[in-house]
Fold this sequence. Notes:
It is a single chain. This protein has 367 residues and is of the alpha/beta class. It has eleven helices and 18 strands. It has two domains: 211 residues, Alanine racemase (TIM Barrel); 127 residues, Lyase, Ornithine Decarboxylase, Chain A, domain 1, CATH 2.40.37. The strands form three sheets. Strands 1, 10, 13, 14, 15, 16, 17 and 18 form an eight-stranded mixed β-sheet that branches. The protein has an eight-stranded parallel β-sheet with strand order 8-7-6-5-4-3-2-9. Strand 3, helix 4 and strand 4 form a beta-alpha-beta unit. The two termini are 18 Å apart.
Amino acid sequence: MRERVYAEIDLSALEHNFRALKALSGRAVMASVKADAYGHGAVPAAKRLCAAGADWLAVATADEGLSLREAGIAAPILILGHTAPQLAPRLCRENITLTCASYEHAARLSQAAAAAGVTPGVHMKLDTGMARLGFGGEDDLAAALALPNLRAEGLFTHFAASDLPGEPFMDEQIQKYNRVLGLLERRGHSFTFTHCANSGAVLHYNKEVPGNMVRAGIALYGYAPSGFAAIPVKLIPVMSLWANVAMVRDLRAGETVSYGRAYKAPRDSRIAVICCGYADGYRRALSGKGHVLLHGRRCAVVGKVCMDMLMADVTDVPEVTAGDTALLFGAGENAPSLDELANLAGTISYELLCAVSARVPRIYQAL
């Protein structure tokens, strides 16, 4: 249904971004489809990415991985987040790989796997400075690698500051990863998959980052994590958010718009009421800051963004009428970019993509 608001998902743009990142990295690519593929729809995105040659898929939770399997997707899947040990047997049977991030977690996974008579694949996560999930050093890692009923296929880490070039902390994290990997290899441990680079690292530090695989996330969907820094490839936004104009109303100078009467018309004005609000994912923080595109021209969002509607000043675009469709963000000449809106809202592109709610239909192009 397109009677209110809808998101167009350009799967050809997704494939373009994947191929650009694959060529740039020169390595295997693990494509992140966690959080419903950053709001784009995990199953359609995963299918297109696998058809384009994705080597692995990354998810955040067991349910996300199982949903892909239920949709018939057979590609290798890694759960990047924490997984309860009791889920290990089922995930093993579904050929879903788990992240192991501490000796205690590894021991519980090993115990659950032994009781079920299975040997799940795991990737060991090393904390090199993110201070999130991850082993602190080689001793606990080596002890975990000695546990039975775990098949340690990979070693990885996550960068805390790869979004901008020239960040000294990147060197510290890379050096720690290389040091621990070298120590483990000298103890007789080897890994089929080694991966460190996220989108920012691929775009800004590709040649410096170790590993035979990279993890592509936000860049797949058309955005650099740094927002406005120069990048070596062209990325195309995959999602465009559209909403219909419900009515156009005339205001006299001095009349106010929306909750709190925060906006007072400085002149006689025409105001378009647009069928999208913060419950659809258009942030309330964009009240009085954002713009929408109508008939190729930008129109300022005025008044407080409501739960289900927002208002835009269309005084200077007289051809706007009820039934028109406004572009809220996405690809296209003069279109509001997601990075622009994120900057205005004091957040990041990831959050705005993930905020597009489940009640907004996704319309897939170039299936």
